[in-house]
Amino acid sequence: MTTVIPALLFIFIIFFGFIFIFFTVKVDKLDEDARNKSSEIDGNLWDRAFQLTKLVDVLNEKGIEHDIEAPNINAYGLGMSTLLQSTSSEELDNKERQLRKVMKKHPELESDETFKVHWDKFQTARSELMKSSLAYNKSVNAYSNGISTFPSNAIASFHKKKGKMTFAYIFTDLNYEKKDSE
């Protein structure tokens, strides 16, 4: 009997250790996936801002008057908060609206190869941003669900992991703006 209690205690400790490690890895994997998806958003925002600076450069080279302030691409980097990412998306879309107004006044831009290349990349970056924001929100929901159930919630609390905010910017179709905004 004296050897049974230490053996049971040893088995319990091994079992508890296994459960602790298993759920720590699970929580860390969900957290890592959400961080990776957030990094994709950061990259898409940077690319979109970079392409906008190139488009503004073309406007300036051609002497076309505009109010579009080229973004500081150094402000776009890895590790931006979700709120800052959403705000940046809105700012870039507002600048795109301004750019579309300039394009309507200057249809010759459509025949400029440099402008077309950067415009296409600018639009592609927006599409990729939409895709990566959906993937991020999906991974954040999986993370939040994963750390809300026992025993994952105890492990997450032990490692001081908390819920994450979702990417809250709603992408609208910028091709069809209201007539009064022109």
Outline: rod-shaped
Order of helices and strands: HHHH
Question: Which regions have little confidence, pLDDT < 50, spanning 5+ residues?
Answer: 178-182
Largest sheet: none
Average per-residue pLDDT, rounded, comes to 91
Number of DSSP-assigned strands: 0
What is the structure about, briefly put?
The chain has 182 residues and is mostly helical. The chain has four helices and no strands. The chain has helices at 4-61, 82-105, 113-146, 152-158.
Structural topology:
Blueprint: H1 4-61, H2 82-105, H3 113-146, H4 152-158
Helix pairs in contact: 1-2, 1-3
Description:
The longest helix is centred in the first third of the chain and has 58 residues, at 4-61. The chain has helices spanning 4-61, 82-105, 113-146, 152-158. With 182 residues, the protein is mostly helical. Helix content is 68%, strand content 0%.
Question: Which features characterize this protein?
Answer:
182 residues; mainly alpha; 4 helices
